[in-house]
Amino acid sequence: MFIKSLRIRKTTTDEIVREVLFHKGANLIVDTEDSESHNRVGKTTFLKLIDIAMGAKDRKLIYTDADTGTVTEELRDFIVTNKIAVDMTLTSDFPDGDDVILTIDLFPNGRYYIDGEKMGQKAYQQRLNVLLFGNEANVPTFRQLINSFVRVSVGGDDNSFLKTVPSGSTSIYRSVYNALFGISDPALDKKRDDLNKDLNKTRESIKRYKKVQNVDTVSEQQQILAGLEAEHEEVQCKLNSIIDADVYRANRDEIAATRTRYASLTLQLSDIDYRLQRNEEALQTAMQERGRQADVNLSRRFFEEVCSMIPMVNATFEEMVAFNNQLCDNKIAYFASVAEKLKAERASVQREISQLSSQNSQFMSLVEQDLIDEYESLQARLVELSSSIGKCREVIDTLNSFEVEQTSIEGKIASLGSSDDGDEPQSNDFAAMMLAFNAFFTPLAREFNNESPLLVYYEESNKFPVAIRDTAGSSTGTRKSLIAAFDLAYQQFAESKGIKTPRFIVHDVLENIEGKVLRDIIARASTINCQYIVAVLKEKLDSSLISAEEQGKLQILQLSIDDMLFTRGKGVAS
Q: Which of 1, 185, 288, 543 is the one with CA 20 to 30 A from 84?
């Protein structure tokens, strides 16, 4: 489809503010002002109107600076007050092709129309996708495709003009260029894009899971698991050597009671043994005292001396000796009787211990060898190991599940890279298409700037699909001319391959192109079955030695301070 006309209209009165008629070849929007007044008369705004007619999202950009957010209030008020709309007529061919009329309200909450049918912006864009690209599936979207034809703002000294989709992913660009060059089915590209998104989500989930769990690889976790299981088996063997776990659990209370009673009896036995030892020591001391032979003469003299000092003592020395011997005999008899009692008590405790052992023989070894604490400690470690093993296995299972999911998605993506019906691989398709495109592109670039560029295509799904190689020069002007060569070559290529695309190219100001290059681009555009719609400065046309007659023939709109886009004469800045 070509652009036949564009009208700016007041819907309040149906008055035509401005009507512009287009033709095939170069269509020039000319700024006649000097350098100080450039960018004030509305040439870029006119190109924005074409972009809005092509479904651009934000209609406020007509009166709002995209970089600063500054609003041209007078223009905004003019649009809102008069409820300005744009009517663009598309035609299948000149002069008598089939026409389609697009209408877009520029004021807030305005609607979109195709041949008078009112619709929302999304439906409008989808209808244009079918109309201009024959893209029923809407993959890629219309706006992703149309940006390759409506370049309202193109700049830079590199191949950035190939990146036409703001914030577009590699998969989106692959879908766009595959559609433009007829390399693959857009539906498959959409499926591949969705799969790549799923793959990225899975990879991010794996990354987050590993970070949260503080793990690295499945292999690492498998080694840790092997170590935990080996220790678990070792601890279990130690427990089994002490007592069967089922027996222990079934008799836990009885074992505890037996342990308590056994500890009490062994404590009593230890106390009796200690008392027996002390009593035996006392008995031996008493017997040694009884057996000693005192010096009778010395004792007698001492007794007599004392008696002389204590007249009241009536006992004789012999009586005193006999009394002392009786005391020793009494001590010996007492300690002997205590020993008998302690021995009887000890025997009683031993019998109770024997009876306790006899009644609890199956787990008495635990009590006697004091293995219960060790058993409980081992049991606690076993529980801890079981928990760690369970967690480790869960981590391994989860990582394996992620791996299976990732492998499955990668397999599906790989399967989309080849033909499902046994035809030749996609690589032959893109190679043929690049060869056909470069047959137009390289000669045009050589003609404009004596360069010999080639557009190359990359098969790798994670790589930007196209690039320009072997170009000469690096100035912005050179690159602007390269864009012109690219777009004009694509028009020739698409027509030769029967690819349905817009038959128009819209470029912003060619401020860095002039002279022979500008003349060659304009002249070449007029020989190709398309429309090359560009904003250009009058002074550039003059300095490039393009005749007034030729300018008049190619010019579709001339703007100045006295004849601005929305009004004739000064009054509404644009």
A: 1
